[in-house]
Here is the input.
Amino acid sequence: MHKVTLIPGDGIGPEVTDSCVKVMEAAGVKIKYEKVDAGAGVMEREGTPLPEQVLESIRKNKVALKGPITTPIASGFRSVNVALRKELDLYANLRPAKSFKGIRTRYENIDLVIVRENTEGLYAGIEKYTSEDKSSGETIRRITKKASERIARFAFEYAEREKRKKVTCVHKANIMKVTDGIFLEAARRIAESYQGIEFEDRIIDNMSMQLVVKPELYDVIVTTNMFGDILSDLCAGLVGGLGIAPGANIGEEIAVFEPVHGSAPKYAGMDKVNPTATILSGILMLKHLGEKKAADAITKALDEAFLEGKKLTYDLGGKARLSEFTDYVISKLP
Ligand code: NAD
Here is the structure.
């Protein structure tokens, strides 16, 4: 029996995590969940969006399944997601983007993985106003050799394990010569130890264009925090949108699995959104837990459900409710 921390989250979070839990249960995986709350709802009750017991539970169980959490824009509490990643040193953010046959998109056969550095760069939250009237401010973009080498090694290890052929380092070292210079050099150094995997680098602006024009040329992409965040949404768009984009935040010992999308508050409680991103995050979690058979069975069930295309949620052009789609995927399990 595995023990996993479950954070349902805000907005659509409870619905999509519930769907994922049901599908994994139906695939026969034995998981005991420890449910803890974090986010905007908890903030009102407890005065903090990230109570200590949430961190304690994840530290103890080492694995968590998490729904999205609402973060107020520009004011209010700092992002719980950023705090979790920093507190637990979840340095690698893995965001695969894979096409499903049956989902109509502009592209076919996309199979990309973004490996995003999760702890430093522009999202480290080192920000301040630089004038009393708050009319100017600055953000520090700190990059270290240690974190850059660690994320590059993670990308190559992942590529090797998943039998992938190429790692592309994405940066802006032509302009940010110091910080992205450190990042690119680190990736080049690590690449030398992985001779079986092709290595190349691309400048972020060119990469954005390349991904829209020739996405099939890319395989594993390793990049800094903000570039990784933006590119992974771009890649989600290539394969059908946020409804099918999963993610994992991985550290040396702890891993937190969550969809790329946010809490979509306008759809909360409507049994409407697509739970696939969370189910796919659950598949990443099952692989992490060594439950390959169940992970493969759910992957196959999703493949079949999309190929038949009878029960698609609104974002994929269908009319099915979240619960109908969930039951349909479950009906495809062996
Ligand atoms: P969002 O991802 O919540 O929603 C953007 C749009 O994408 C939605 O209006 C909807 O059209 C679509 N969408 C998202 N998830 C979907 C799904 N499962 N199925 C179908 N369609 C889906 O982004 P936002 O509106 O920018 O952010 C809302 C809140 O979520 C903000 O407070 C933001 O900070 C937070 N957020 C949290 C996380 C996280 O917890 N990891 C990630 C991103 C955003």
Q: What stands out?
A: Residues 11 and 254 are 25 Å apart (CA to CA). Residues 16, 68-71, 81, 242-243, 258, 261-264, 273-274, 277, 315 surround nicotinamide-adenine-dinucleotide (CB under 6 Å). The chain has two domains: 1-96+244-334, 106-239. The longest helix spans residues 145-161.
